[in-house]
Amino acid sequence: HLQAEKSGRKLFVEESRKFLEEALKSGKRDISLHVEFKPARITKSMLAGHPPINLLSSFTTFYGAHDSPNRIHNIQLIASWINNTLLLSGESFSLLSKTGEFSGERGFKEAYVILDGELVPEYGGGTCQIGTTLFNTASLADLDIKQRRNHSFYFNIYPLGRDATVYPPTLDMKFENNTGHPLLITSKATHKSLNFRIYGTPTGKKVIFSSPVVYMLGPTGRFVPSSLRQVIAEDRPFRTEVVRTVKDASGKLLEKELLRSYYKLYGERDNVPIRRKEPR
Length: 280
Prior knowledge:
With 280 residues, the protein is of the alpha+beta class. The chain contains six helices and 18 strands. It is 21% helix and 34% strand. Strands 13, 14, 15, 16 and 17 form a five-stranded antiparallel β-sheet that branches. It has a four-stranded antiparallel β-sheet with strand order 3-12-11-4. It is flat, with a radius of gyration of 23 Å.
C-alpha cells in the first residue's frame, strides 16, 4: 500500500528562538518560526510503477569469541546511523561519510584496528566489520562497488576473500545505486551478530560467490597453489581468488568478476603483533 508523500520541514532552532524572544517582549500573540519546507525525496508516483518492497539482499557476520565490548559498541553505534538509509538511483554510499570523525565525543570507544602491521586500540575499532558486511550485502544486490580493499590480516569472522577494511581518510567502502530505482538499507546489530538488508525493486538477478582459491607465498617469492591449513601451519603471506557471477532471471550469464585479496598472515591469537593492549 502506497501513501502520498508529505513535504519535510526543517526548524532553524536559533533563529526561531530569537523570533520567540522578540515576540514575547513585544507582547505578540502570533509568533512565526523559521521553518524551511523540503519536498519529499521519494514520491508516490516514483514508486507506483516499481514498488520497492522486495528484499534484494541480506548478509550477516558474527563477532569473534574474543571481541571486546568496546568493539561491539562501535559496531552497534555505526549500524544505528546507517539503519533506514535511503539511496536514490545514481547516488553513492560512502561508509566514511556515514561514520564521520572517530572520537570519544561522538560516542566511539577504543578497540583494535590494524595499523602498520600491528593491532592498536583506536576510536572506531570494529568499523571494518561494518564495511565487510555492507560490501557483501551490496555485492549480492549487484550494486556497483566503487571502493573496497581487504585487510592485511585475515580473521575468520569474515568470509575469506570478501572482507573490506576501512581507515580514514583514504580506505573507504563505497558503492553506487545502479538499479534505476530507490533503495532502502536497514541494519541490525545485536550482541552476537551484525546484519544488513537492502530493499528495492526486484531485478531478477542472482549473484553467486565461488569458494576461495588459496595461493601461498613460497620461498622463491612466487604465489603457489595452497590450502588454508598449509598457510596456517607455515604462517606465511597468501592471496585468494573469488569469482563473483551474476545471472539474470533466466539463468543467462551477465557478468563474471574476479576478486583478488592479499593477506600478510592468517590471524591467530598468538601470531598477530599487538602494539598496545585494548582497554577492556
